[in-house]
Structure formats: structure tokens, C-alpha cells
Amino acid sequence: MAAQLQTRAFTSAQGVAAPRRQLRVSAVAEVERAVSQAQRRGVPEGTPVVPVRDLPSRPRRNRKSETVRRAFSETYLDPANFILPVFVHDGEENIPIDSMPGVARLGWRHGLLDAVKEARSVGVNQVVIFPKTPEHLKTPTAEEAFNPNGLAQRTISLLKDTFPDLEVYTDVALDPYNSDGHDGIVSDEGVILNDETIEYLCRQAVSQARAGADCVSPSDMMDGRVSAIREALDSEGFTNVSIMAYTAKYASAFYGPFRDALASAPKPGQAHRRIPPNKKTYQQDPANYREALREAILDEQEGADIMMVKPGLPYLDVIRLLRDNSPLPIAAYHVSGEYAMLKAAAERGWLNEKDAVLEALLCLKRAGSDLILTYYATEAAKWMAADKPSWR
Ligand code: PBG
């Protein structure tokens, strides 16, 4: 439509030889009258003289200055919407993650606190914790997930002791603790066991709540886990601990750098023990849209407080679907692969990083998400703080 209009305008402005001469001869007086001096001032020589188009609607009027653009803006980003995902390990130094330049596995005692302090100083007061479990603590049944002295639990307590008003989210899934690299317990036949896994997810969620978590986030995609976790939390007295359900979590290639960060990718199987090489029997098929609604209806009935779509940008339609069909807050996870793509292009000078990142985050918001989990949270908040309008 826009292209069509432009083509028409172009054709009549430039014209083909004959009609153009006709226009010049017959309409010259009208043109002189119609084209205001102001519009003609400063136009480059050679600019065609044309009659004013009779356009009742000129949408460009609403974009004509920074003031009106700000006044009519439909969507705003606020650092208060951001959740910063943080990787921690049981050591002191910060270890850079190769596939995520600028992101590190933080030493849980110091590096983490510095990162959180920095995030809070620019208005980001929500974090989600991802612990890197040492290989020797991983087992097929992932009991380390609910060790009261585990890295995740210690990290949660330290954060809440240091920053009592920080909103601390946790990940509920077995993959960082599972020697097979799956979110659930794997049988010898290579089946990810649903109901058995839920039992351990409940223990994991309760242990995180005991450590002080404000919101637990099941990312495992087992059926029925939200209601089971709700019940487990309530029966232990944690009625105030929220649940952010990974409602529409897709079996996506964009999680690659995250699995590098935690060394949590599915492991190769053996002759007597088949381990599925991907998570397609529990995470959603990227081809599917209606299925997200089915998951959303269930998560809502089961008591989720927030529903998440993951990844973010490739799934804007799914964010919109959930936004239009549920009153719950919607979160979008701008995942590790999305971060890596932007970083890689920016490092090569192929994209303006700040503009591209802020646009990506704004689009997640415009699609209907209230919350955005992004590794860019702190950086974006800094850019936003520096982005004063020109009249101030
Ligand atoms: C674990 C989990 C994953 C992510 C968040 N929680 C990886 C996976 O499901 O394989 C991915 C986050 C990212 O890529 O940034 N269940």
C-alpha cells in the first residue's frame, strides 16, 4: 500500500515527457499558487514543481518532530520491566562465556553482588539465577537441585540478605543438575519421565522458596507442574511465593549459548541408555501457534502468576496471542542466541548495537509483553538513562 502510493506520487511528479509538458503548460498558475513558499524554500535545484496533492490524511504530520513523536508513542520501555538473568559458579573470579561476549559466569560471592548493584543503580531490580553445577555433582536424578546448601540456594540467600527488596526469580528444571542434560529424569529407553520429574521439581521449588526466592520459574515443560508446585509451595507456607511459568517454551536452536554457559546440553547416550539429543518431546514445536494457547489455558488454571514466551523476537505472534487471551502479566525471554546474534553483528560493526538492542526490546513490549528477561538489561537501562530528548 505504502509502496503503491509512493510509486503513484513518483510517477506524477516526474511524469513521462508528454504529460509532464502538458501539466507544465496548463497548470502552471495553479501550481505556483498551490505550492507554498515555505515548502519550496531550500529545495535542491531540479526538484520538480508539482501541485499539492489533495491528501485528507498525511500520517507524516504525526511524526514531524521529536516532541510529537514522543507524545504519540504507544510503547515505552522501562528498566522496571527488565529481569536480568545471571549465571553464577561456585568460585571467586568471573569467567567469560565465549558465545556471549560481555556475559560471564559470576563468582557467586562477589562478582554477582557487583553485577546486581550495577543493575539496581540504573533501575533494574529483578534477577533470575542460573547456577553452573560442577560435573561431579550431577546425577541422573539431579538431587543437587534441592540441596539446601546448593549453589542456587546459597546464592538466593546471599542476594536476599544483601538486597532485601530485590525480586529474585529462580529456574525450576533439572537440566543444570542432571548428568544426562535434560530438564527431567531420563529412563533407559530415552523417555523423559513426567510425573516422577514433577516430584523433584516440587522439592526444588520449595528449597528455593526456603532460601528466600520471590518467584520460582518452571522452565521444564512437564505437564501439570505448575499446579503441583503451587500445591507444594502452599503446603509449606509459601503462599506469597509467585510462579512465573514458562508457558510457551519452544524447542529452539537459540538456546545454544546458554547451554555452553552451563554445560547443560543433552549428553550423548550409550548402548544401554538412550538419551534424546534434543528436547522436542517436552518443549514446543516452533511450527505451532495454537498449542501455545492450550498451554496458556492450563497454566492459568493451574495458578501461574506470570506466563512466559520463549524465545522472544522469533515468537512475537505468540506473545500477542497470550496477551490477547489472558489477563496475566506476560514475560518474554530474549534468549542467549538472540543476545549472541546482536553482539556478533555489533562487534563486526554491522549493526548499531544500542539502536538495534533498544528496538528489539521495544518490539517485545509492543507485541504485548510486560516483562522482558534479557542479558542486555543493565546495558539497555544505561542507554535509556542517557537518552534524553533534545529539548532537555
Ligand atoms: C533450562 C533453561 C534453558 C534456558 C532457560 N532455562 C535452556 C534449555 O531449555 O535448554 C535458555 C535461556 C537462554 O537461552 O537464554 N531449562
From TrEMBL:
GO terms for cellular component: chloroplast; cytosol. Signal peptide: none annotated. The lineage of its organism: Eukaryota, Viridiplantae, Chlorophyta, core chlorophytes, Trebouxiophyceae. It comes from Chlorella sorokiniana. It is an enzyme of class 4 (lyase). GO terms for molecular function: porphobilinogen synthase activity; zinc ion binding. It catalyses: 2 5-aminolevulinate = porphobilinogen + 2 H2O + H(+). Its cofactor is Mg(2+). Its EC number is 4.2.1.24. Homooctamer. Belongs to the ALAD family. Its main location: plastid. Keywords: Allosteric enzyme, Chlorophyll biosynthesis, Chloroplast, Heme biosynthesis, Lyase, Magnesium, Metal-binding, Plastid, Porphyrin biosynthesis, Transit peptide. This is Delta-aminolevulinic acid dehydratase. Pathway: Porphyrin-containing compound metabolism; protoporphyrin-IX biosynthesis; coproporphyrinogen-III from 5-aminolevulinate: step 1/4.
